[in-house]
Structure formats: structure tokens, C-alpha cells
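quick one
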Amino acid sequence: MSNQTVRQLAEVVKIPLDRLLEQLKEAGLKVNRPDDIVDEGEKNKLLAHLRKRHGKNDGVDSVDTPKRVILKHRKVSELKQTSISGKSTKSISIEVRKKKTYVKRSDELNPNAENKAVDIQTTDVTTVDAIGKKTNIETKSKSVVEKIDPVVDAEQQKKVLEKKKEDDKERLERERKQRLEASVERNAEKVRKIAAAKQQAATTTTTTEKKKPSYRNKAAEPKRNDKNTKSAVADKGRKGRGGKGKKGRLKGRAAVNPAIETKHQFEMPVAPTIKEVAIPESIIVSELAQKMSVKAAEVIKQLMKLGLMATINQSIDQETAVILVEEMGHKPVIQSDDDIEQEMLSQVVEVDGREHFSRAPIVTIMGHVDHGKTSLLDYIRKTRVAAGEAGGITQHIGAYQVKTDHGSVTFLDTPGHAAFTAMRARGAKITDVVIIVVAADDGVMPQTKEAVEHAKAAEVPIIIAINKIDKPEANPEKVMQELAIINVVPEEWGGDTQFLKISAKTGEGVNELIEALILQSEILELKAPIEGTASGLVVESRLEKGRGAVATILVQKGTLKKGDIILCGHEYGRLRAMFDETSTLIKEAGPCAPVEILGLSGTPNAGDEFLVVKNERTARELAEHREDKHKLSRHAAQQAAKLDEVFAKMAAGETSTLNLVIKTDVQGSLEALRESLVKLSTDEVDVKCVYGGVGGINEGDVNLALASGAILMGFNVRADSTSRKLIAEKDIDLHYYSVIYEAIDEVKRSINGMLAPDIQEKILGLAEVRDVFRSPKFGSIAGCMVIDGIVKRNLPIRVLRDNVVIYEGQLESLRRFKDDVNEVKMGMECGIGVKNYNDVKTGDQIEVFERIEVKREI
Ligand code: GDP
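structure w/ guanosine-5'-diphosphate:
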């Protein structure tokens, strides 16, 4: 940025030298030779001149005046809410208006600006006479500080934001002080009178002399440290106070000062209270109002002014909350949720500098139904855990540990994928290794594939147990081949997965399986500290009569002791009693030991973390904080993964992957759909199929979608009733399709930020077939109960069997008792005849839908 000659400048701006000289002349500058130096000021003048010539007169008169850039952004979108049942549809028009004003100043930052700002902070109110002067200084510094205002520059944006935060802090501090001063001023007269009276009585008494410094010191302390930045007036004032027998004016001041300082330091001013409002990552309107001690309606009103329509129970983001709090004259203190929790935790939990020792692997068993998961778990428990115990039978506690000469292995006794994904959905990574059981006489089945995909999605190593090798028809070779196809390749074939042949019935190979697990854990180098306070995860919990909340937990670090105070998700309590997997009362439990504990305030969720904390009060506070956070995250989750928002999020740089969970009616459509959807990936967004399977949408699919922030897609399949509830509760984005092209088109549109099609399908109602009658006139008539929404005549329908679409057609006849009706509402029985379809069976479901045209405003 050093000064250039005219010639150099001409080269830089790429215009002929002659023209530049001409322009310089026109601008009235004294630079008229090619080798003359053009300094910054002259460049600016030239620029101003050129702008003027081009009719852009703004900010030309003085290049030093601010250039204001106002960015306005208006986004209109429409939110469609169709209940899963299709019962009702709501259209909500959302208009988001954003306005940002950037002020750019071209002059350099005054190097003294910072100092001056500091000046103000440290120049406290010391004398009444000083007030006028101080206000002046502050105004001046205000203008200085403003020059540090944001500059529109992508690279500097972060810096600027930080700076802005600081500036805001300063500004608020300044405003606070101004208010204080105002109040001091108002009281000044009064104070002066009192002081004058005091002065008369106490100028020479030693007691007053002794007393004064005692509270004056407190107030003056910070100033002493900052002697250099202190205003001279303050110094004078202090001197005045110290030296008695000086001139009356000073004496007068000396007596006044402490009174004001006392006021300043120990009493609340008459001016409005400025609160420090802690703002977490998102905050509910009512709570924010409470923090500022104002009515929620007031907050809503202010939000409207900011262009945001919010309800009392709505959560608003941190940025908005900060602006709002400032608008309302309070001081926002930005807090991240983790900060709060970390801060609280740091007070109660020991700092982790403990020595780590190798620990047992924690293992989950998954696989297709009837392939022997339960048998394997039972075999291991009976032979390895309960052996030698009186009675031999153990109570089911959700997990148990097996000890061998080489080390221990902890098994989670919750077979099935649902438990695994449910835990994962809560963000818990409890499993170190997954065993996938495949029956040698059956081979790879849908749930085997599902298990593989779940384990891979969780990035947990897999060990394959080829079970039932005692059976004559066992064909382990076939299992290996089938698994290799889905990228689970045995070590002996050059892959990285351990395959073991076992029989859960005879016990053959089970020892080797456990050894393989220990080997795998050595590879993983699993380590944990044994010393110190315990922490870990909840495996399961239940309420038991006479025992209260019973939770099975797995210690991951440290040692858990009876009497410890435990914080467990949103629950807490003192550990009253602890049992191991053989129901033996124990006093201590180390890493990877599953134990059943009594004493919690309620039942925590599987996958919740537990911690030993120092005292019950903090445990309770933390539990409450988590509860709040949980509530908020539920609010936040509602804004998670939505197909409609992919583009907006991409544009905002928030997302670069679009995760999908796809369920289809047949394998063929799954392959086709998966392939074409993944192909839609662009440089900006990666379309990823987290899981694809055949059959209706079940709870596991929903949990997986939740865990991986995925969008659920049903192709000719529907969600079952349990998963429908979960989908509604967690507000997961679910899309049904019946044509592959539609699905592809919708994803494509969402990636490219295009509008939805004009024709959309809406599910109106669902009826369940309770009985089937024959009618000579209509063929098969399904005696139904409308279980959701409304069923109407002459609308298109789909017949679902096991949540898979088996037929699509038209509703021909709709009757209640003997009468033809036009519609039947939920909870009523009716007879439905489907045109050209006679294959209806009891238990089938009939879905009634309509195609609607979407009108939208742009
Ligand atoms: P899960 O549904 O995966 O838990 O399977 P189960 O453990 O309930 O086993 C299903 C059936 O397979 C049961 O009848 C078991 O007795 C049988 N089974 C399990 N493992 C073996 C095995 O290794 N050999 C034989 N022959 N049968 C087995």
C-alpha cells in the first residue's frame, strides 16, 4: 500500500498513462508528471472526482464519511404440515426479512482508539464536577470506537465479529455508566447538601479521616492500578481528599467524593436496572422475558420490530436473542450450552489426568431373526457367567461380563438392532465391537444386511459368527460369499473382518469367538482409568415395586462406590445399593463392569451418560440444566434435516451431505432408487444413503434417521403405527413415493433450491380391514374401521399389507350399514369396495388419498 508513481498506478488500474494524467489534472491535483508520487490521500481525491463525474455523488464530498451498505434479504417460503395420518394439512406462510447495515470507514483505525476506550472504562465517576468533562470524553471515544465498526470483507468477517462483540461490550458498559452518571447527577444536589453539612461538622475530626479511606480504598482500588489512564480530575479529587487544610473548594469536594463513591459502589442507582442476561445457544421467548424481568408480550413486540414473528413458547436463536437483549437495554452474555455444562462439571468432576489401563471390549450381538442371537447370549451367560453360582440362573440385567485368562469381555444383553440404534440415536457410543450372527443354514438375510449397515454407520468393527454349524445342512462357505458381496470380507480372503464358525447349541467355537473379541479389543487398544470417580453409560432402566428406579449401568472410567452421588442424564441420586450380573450385592465396580444400581430420582434413558459428582446440590442443578437443554434440543431438532431446507442450509454453508434412509417394497426398487439418488451428489452436496432396506418403516429406521440426521423415504411402503408416533414426536421428515422418478425429482429440486411441484399427494385417511364379504354386485367388500382421518368416495386408494403397498386403484363403493355414503370419519365402521380388486384380506389397510394442486405466492 506504499505510495506509487503515476506510471505505476496507471499500470495497476490498467488505463493509459495519458488518460490518468488527464484525470489527475481534472481532479485538481498537482501531480502532472509520470514519475510523480501519488499518495493515498490523492488517490482518494481522484476516486472521489471520478465518482462525481459518473454521477455517483454519495460520500464524495468527504471520502472520510462513512459509506453505508444496507443489505436487505427477504425470503418467502411456505411450510406444509401434513400429519402422518393425513388427517389434516396446514399451510404456513413464512416470511423472513433480514436487514444488515455495514458501515465502512476508509480512514485508518486511530491507533489511540483502544486506549481511549480503555480510558473511559477506567475513568470512573469520582467527583461531581468531573461528570461534565467525562461525558465529553466518552462521546469522543464513542466516535473513535465506531470506527472499528464492521467492514464488508469476507476474510475479516470473523475478526470483525469478535471486534463487534468487544465493542458491544464496551458500548453497553459505556451506556451503563452514562445511566449511572445521570442518576448520580440527579442525586448530586442532594449529596452536595448533605456533604456540605457533614463538612462543617467533620473537617477536622480524626474519626472521619480514618473512616473515609476504609471505603474509599475499596472504590478507588482499580483506579490505582491504572494510574496512567486515569483522568487528571480523578487524581486531583483524590489529592483533595487526602490533603486537609487546602482551599475550600477542594475541601468541599473531598467531603462530597466518598458520598458519591459510596453510592456508586454499594447502592443501586435510580436509573433502570441493566441486567446481565446469559444467552444459551437457543432460548425460549418466555424464558428470555423472565431473565430480563419483562413481560413475554414485550419481548414478542420487540421481536416483531426485528421482523420476527414468535410465540411465547418458541425458541429463538442466540444471535437474535443477543440483538433483542441489547435493544431492550440489557447486557447479553453469550453462553454455549456446553460451556454451561462444562463449567458446572468442572466444579464437580475431577480433572482427567488419570493413568489408563486396558479395559474389556463392550459387545453387542446383532443378526437376522432366528439366527441364534439369544441362544448365543444364553449359552455364554450360562456357561461363562453363572457357572458355579448357586442356582445358576441369573437375573436379566441387560449386560454381563465374561472373564477369561486373557481378559474380560462385556456383552450387552439387548439383542436386536432397535436397542443399538436407539442408543446411537441418543449419541451414545457404547459398543466397541458388533457380533453379527448368521445362520449357516440360512445365509445372509435382510436383517443381516441391516445389521451390517447399522454397524458400519456407527463405525464399529464387526465380527461375524457363522452359527448353527452343527446342522448337517450348514453351508458356511455360502455365508462368506454372500457377506463378501456386501463388502464384509473374511480375513482369509484378504479382507479385514474376523469370521468364526460356531454353534450356540453345542458351544463349539464359542471360546474362539471370545478370544477373537479379546484380540479385536487389543487391536482397538481400549483403555480406561481405574482410579478416581466413575463415569459411564446407562444400558437400561425400569421402575420396580419396592426398589424404585433401577438402572443397569456400565462403568467406563474410574470406580463406582456405594454412597456416591450420581448424575445420570436428567436423573440424580445417592447410590443406595449396587448389584452385579449374578445379583450379588457389591460395594465397588470398575471399568466395563455392568451393575444394577438403586437410588436414582427416576429412570434414565438407555444411552444416557452417568457421572459421579461431588455433591447432591450440584447434581440436581446439572440434572435440571440438562432437562432444559433437552427441551431446547427438541425444539432445535424440529428444525433438523428437512428436504425443503437442504438448499437453504447448503447456501448457508451448514450442510454438505444429504443423508437418506430409504425403505422400499422390493429389493429391485431399492437398488434403483439408491443408485439414482446417490448419483445426484454434486460438488456442493453429497447425497448419502445411510441405510436402505425392504419392508415397512419401523422404529429402528426412524431411530437411525434420527441418529444420522437423515430424511426418511418410503417407496411404496408406509410407517407402522409405533414409528408413526416417533416420527411425529421427533418431527422427522418423512416422504412417501410411488414413482421412482418422483423421488429423484424431489431430491434434485431440493438440492437445486427449486420449488415444489404444483401437484402434490395428500393422504386423507386410513381404514383397517376387519372382515371381507362377498357381494354379487361389487365383488369383495372390505368391512373396515376408519383408524385415521377420513375416507371419501371416488378417491384414489392404495391397499397396504404389512405396511407395503400391494395395490393402487379407486374406491368404488362406500357404505355404512346398508346406505351409500360419501364419507366416513375416524372411529366409524364402513364397507369399502375397491374397483377391479378382489384380493383384500383381513388386516390389510386401505389408504385414501387425493392429488391436490398447490397454489403458491412468489
Ligand atoms: P434369535 O431370534 O436370533 O435370538 O434366535 P434364537 O436364539 O431364538 O434361535 C432361533 C432358533 O435356532 C432356536 O430354536 C434355537 O434353538 C436355534 N438355534 C440357535 N443356535 C443354534 C445352533 O447353533 N444350532 C442349532 N441346531 N440350532 C440353533
